[in-house]
Structure prediction request, 203 residues.
Amino acid sequence: METTPQKSNRHNLTDDAQAIAYGSFMASVGVLLLTHLGFVTGQTAGLAILISYATGWGFGPVFFVVNLPFYWLGYKRLGLRFVVKSFIAVALLSLLVGWLPAFLQFGAVHPAVGAVLIGCMTGSALLALFRHGASLGGIGIVALYLQDATGFRAGWTQLIFDACLFAVALSLRDWQAVAWSALGALVLNLVIAINHRRDRYIA
Prediction:
């Protein structure tokens, strides 16, 4: 009996391009709101923000440089395609964070609302990138590798790293800002942990 070939579920170039553009843009807005509120965050973005707060250097260049050591692991474990997509996403985010303030500014934002909004925006940004074989570098690359290799969910790996980073943040920011930041990081990681499931979603 002849069977009908199934259509491929693989994303095409246009799909990937819009996901990388969406993910980079939404993440950059999340970073702008985060720094507007004086918060911190997790992953390599959080590391870059802490360095930026401590030194006065711009977030964009620091974030770009901080991610460079992780691309080799990404290439070895997840392939050139993943690394190229991730490099483009990181470069776009680094550029957008420097460019968007001329067109987007925030006024009064309650810390609780800001924290949840940051978590939702950044979580949806990372989810879009993950679904299209990309990340915002750094710990995201490690987290995705561990999930593919062991089944340990990417969101939980990031949550562990975030806990360590937030402990360091207490020496640079007041505890209220760190507490609200932790809420945003929790929302972000729950979005990823619940929704990024290869056993549940095809794409």
Observations:
- The chain has nine helices and no strands.
